Amino acid sequence: MAGTDEDTVAAADDALYVLTAALLTPAKFPAVLGDDYPEACAALGLAPLADGYGLVLGQDGEGARWTVVIDDVSLVAVAIASWDCGMEYELSPDERTVVAALPGWPLDVAVAAPGVPAPHDPAPEIANGPALTPPDTSAWGPAQRRLGADEIAVQWNLWRDQIDDAAFTTEVVEAGPAEDSGRVDAEAGADPVGKDGGPGADGGTAGDAGGTEAAQTPSAGRGDIRRVLAEARAYVETPPPPGRVRSSFAPGDARTLRADGPGWSLVARTDDIAFLLLDARPGEVLPVGRGPELPGLLEALDKMAVRPF
């Protein structure tokens, strides 16, 4: 996503050359920043307002990095949608919508404004505080785990095609402490499946989803699957912070679910299987088959999930 070279907004007493933008709302926020919306807001020092924010990332006339936070969420949403369609859109927020001008960028930006110095943090006397920096994704951890889950959601068919349904063997998985659930039946796979593009966690070339690979072993990961499904089931009984469970478009009548918790991320289609990524299992993707109970859990999560406008 990128604006035109002429796109500018007023920030930090200078013009800002807009490079990209992102939404920061309960239904859609940069997952690399946190497991939920309040956590993502905290990473930027913002209060988690119900309507959310738009983030405008760019450079000033000296090349310094700035993140302008605005409360006109619709404007940013329209700009992003236009750029995604390959259309130009002049993102020029009204100064009255500016909530804050924060030094630095909280996300990686691969482009730079033409005709100004290379991107750099503002001088301390201008910044009035430490500059924002993107989370470290050089090693496996929460940020990379969430990025991997995002990538699987975007490239669902690529990952789904690696899973042979005939390899699943039915296993009863405890659902956890929720009083009305008792048990969740899931299916753990039988044979390892490597991701095209490299062995990922084995130290070779990282795959598209943050160096992950699909893992289907008969015993490894079943305890982790039980624990995560129990925590996900608990969300139905006790709603978590906003943004922990999100629902978005999928083909047909299905929805794509994204859920996160302490040390785990879940990606699922409401009409299909689920994938789990865990901090404790670097680079692995654990598939969870439908079974007789997973559909009900996904349906329940979808009903309480936040959705984009």
Task: Please explain how this structure is put together.
This protein is α+β, with helices and mostly antiparallel strands. It has two domains: 8-127, no CATH class; 142-304, no CATH class. The chain has seven helices and 13 strands. A six-stranded mixed beta sheet has the order 8-13-12-11-10-9, sandwiched between helices. A five-stranded antiparallel beta sheet has the order 1-2-3-4-5. The longest helix is centred in the last third of the chain and has 16 residues, at 222-237. It starts with 7 loop residues before the first strand and ends in a 5-residue tail after the last helix. 42% of the residues are buried. Residues 1-8 and 169-208 have low confidence and may be disordered.
How can the largest sheet be summarized? 6 strands, mixed
Number of strands: 13
Spatial order of the strands forming the largest sheet: 8-13-12-11-10-9
- Helix count, per DSSP? 7
Main structural class: alpha+beta
For the CA atoms, what is the radius of gyration?
21 Å
- Average pLDDT, rounded to a whole number, is 82
Shape: elongated
- The helix-strand sequence is EEHEEHEHHHEEEHEEEEEH
Helix content: 10-25%
The total tally of domains equals: 2
* Terminus-to-terminus distance: 20 Å
Q: Which spans have pLDDT < 50 for at least 5 consecutive residues?
A: 1-8, 169-208
Beta-strand fraction estimate: 15-25%
Biased composition (Gly residues): 195-210
Region (Disordered): 175-224
Protein name: Integral membrane protein
